[in-house]
Amino acid sequence: MKTRRATIDLTWNGAAVTTKLKDFLLSATYTDPACGEADSLELSLRNNGLQWSTAWKPQKGDSLYGEIHLEHWDKEGDSRTLPLGQFILDSYSFSGFPQTATIQGVSTPADGGFAGTKRDKVWEQVTVEEIGKEIASRAGIRFIWDVEAVPLVLISVEQSQQTDAEFYQSLCEDYGYAFKVYAQKMVVYDREEYKKRDSVGTISVEELQDYSWTTSLAGTYTGGQYSYTDPYTEQTITATLGGGTRLLVVSGEASSQADAQRKLQAAIDEANHSATTASITIMGNAKLVASQCIDLVGLGLLSGKYFIDSITHTIGSGYTMGLELSLVDNMTDAALQDAVTRLSLVGVMASPDYWLIHAKDLPYLDGLILSLSAIIRTNQGGSSVTTLSEALSVLAAKGAINSPDYWSANASAVPWLDTLLISAANALTP
């Protein structure tokens, strides 16, 4: 079988340099954020002969274009390409020893005014989309607006000593829009709507080279209040959304109740977006891009649907992808399907389809199934557990359940649940 191979093809100021760089390139790192910053490409190069700090010293403003090429990746003959787009050289540095050069480019427009020229302007009776079109036109790049919500006309908004990039990024954040510049395009989309889209793939625990997972014990916001001063009456007005005990309190500028509510919803969505996050490293595949959703499975209660906040592709001695993720839903069909399949394979479940259908018939049953699938990796083949009481004692001792009394009281609520609990306990008992 032919060897799996990952390479990066580079064009520098319009000239192909892949062959020229072959003996110098140590690694290439491409970072693809979902929003908030530009894509970037970083090259780490051998500089033993000091070529890169003398005759070949890069010039600020040089352009780079890159593509990742994979050959025989998932199977023989499986080849694919991931275009990275164009990058403008932003910085370079040198270090030793050994002698190394590091070159970084960002996907900002070639026109330096977009991120370099501070402007003053008052925009009146205009939408966020219309502002974006004008800014993109001035930068000489395409503008893509992927938002279906009814546009809100802004009575007045001021750009004060801000670059177009700074101003528009801040404006989009205020109204809950995700903004990104890459491949000579300026793209605005609704992240909350993207999170509702189907997952594009599944990543199992077996594919992870490493991972970390973090959550806020405070939970998510259920509503909020936004206070602002009415520009005409100079009275303080408070707009509200939602309710409950966990409210986000915000103050700022707004031209109307509708304006304040839109900003409040954006602030709530932003705060809730990062309530639970994960970082994973997997073998690269060039199929995923930031702003998509994936299903992460095989991690018990950490499994679920996640939004990809960023992907860092690294090509050196191998090809890896580091993904920064935010939880969308932790009780997905994909996570449950994976869990019942695992329990079936180790002989704990005789009818996985039955449990997939009935997993939500009893509160916490879906969570129990996910927990059992993570804890029972192999069946120890025990047979000494014969009663529900014995089973619950074993499962509590092994950390599979934390409320034996609940399961004792509800074991008859779903047919065959007691049998499942006993089977699981025996799988954990030699």
Could you outline the blueprint of secondary structure elements for this entry?
Elements: E1 5-12, E2 15-16, H1 18-21, E3 25-33, E4 40-46, E5 63-71, E6 80-95, E7 100-106, H2 113-116, E8 118-126, H3 128-139, E9 142-146, E10 154-163, H4 164-174, E11 178-182, E12 185-189, H5 191-194, E13 202-204, E14 210-215, E15 223-229, E16 236-242, E17 247-251, H6 257-273, E18 276-283, E19 293-297, E20 304-315, E21 319-329, H7 333-345, H8 352-358, H9 365-375, H10 388-397, H11 404-410, H12 417-427
Parallel strand pairs: 9-12, 13-19, 15-17
Antiparallel strand pairs: 1-2, 1-5, 3-4, 3-20, 4-7, 5-6, 6-7, 8-10, 11-12, 14-18, 15-16, 18-21, 19-20, 20-21
Helix pairs in contact: 3-4, 7-8, 7-9, 10-12
